[in-house]
Amino acid sequence: MATGENIQQQAEQFRKRYQAVKDEIGRVIVGHDEIVHGVLTCLFVGGHCLLEGVPGLGKTMLIRTLAEALDLRFSRIQFTPDLMPADILGTNMVVESPDGKRVFEFQKGPLFTQICLADEINRATPKTQSAMLETMQEGTITTSGHRYELDQPFFVMATQNPIEQEGTYPLPEAQLDRFFFKLVVGYSNREQLNTIVNRTTTASNIEVQKVMDGSEILKWQSLIRDVILAQHVQDYIVRLVLSTHPAGPFALPVTNQYLRWGGSPRGAQTLALAAKVRALLEGRFNVSFEDVRRVFLPAMRHRVILNFEAQAENIEADEVLLQILEALPEKAEDTPTTATLAD
Q1: What is d(CA 162, CA 53) in angstroms, rounded to the nearest whole number?
Q2: Which fold has domain 6-81+112-204+211-218?
Q3: Which helix (H) or strand (E) holds 94?
Q4: Fold of 227-327
Q5: Structure pTM?
Q6: Cβ(79)–Cβ(167) under 8 Å?
Q7: Distance (Å, rounded) from C-alpha 302 to C-alpha 252?
Q8: What is the pLDDT of residues 137-164, one digit of tens each?
Q9: N or C: which end of the chain has fewer CB within 10 A?
Q10: Structural domain boundaries of the chain?
Q11: Residue-wise pLDDT tens digits, 67-102
């Protein structure tokens, strides 16, 4: 555990190394600062990331650039409706041994990697999507009665398109819950778009340098878990998650009005770990309320389920969560403010 005089030194070193990876990504990716922060947060806590956005916003390029900046094995899976579980996990194949006999040999699939790009993951059938549940949760693959341990760190970054519905299969709640963050990628502004055009329509060729390896990532993952989370801040995290449960003891009016299901315990774990990363980036070794608030939306937007009323009124999950975040007091003894969305 990080203690004594070296705590501040380690925190500062983490900030510098984190920034080194971010700067290398910034040589290729223009803008999307919060998206890059979100992806790196997932990486440094050992979680997985879901990127949602319309085509052409650089989601795949961001993931590829991150893979190039890290000295880790990388694979890309293009999800399609005809993709089968064996196509990503691997399968037994008949091969000829040196003595001429034919034997079964397991051929590993593309999930046997360290950074996996699951491109357009919602185009695969539920059968194939479910094949990733064990891998994302436990870092293992079980097939043909054998259990394989994946090399760490193991990181899944998935993309999905929110506007095309034909030929897509919405991710089940159990799989969504296994993503640490859900990040919504928006459009670039005028200045950023000009920079993108300049970089991509000229003869310039940017080569990304590898700046970090797997052993260093594991070291930072261990340091992050040593960051202090005071009991009153932890209780704030717990109450935030409980406030998303309709008809629960901490449910707010907006919760009962628009939510059908609330966040799981993974939501609380995500808030705690992500807030610890934010604390380190601010030069602190203890988590503040503001750290928690800054990671609330990406940690929870895919863990709550809207009811029919919210869908009928075209209410987004982010709107409900922002109302909850604004209404719930930091101190447990305070009375929650009534939270309702404006008509």
Answers
A1: 6
A2: Rossmann fold (3.40.50)
A3: strand 90-96
A4: Helicase, Ruva Protein; domain 3 (1.10.8)
A5: 0.84
A6: no
A7: 19
A8: 888 888 777 888 888 889 999 888 776 6
A9: C
A10: 6-81+112-204+211-218, 227-327
A11: 888 888 888 888 888 888 888 888 877 777 777 777
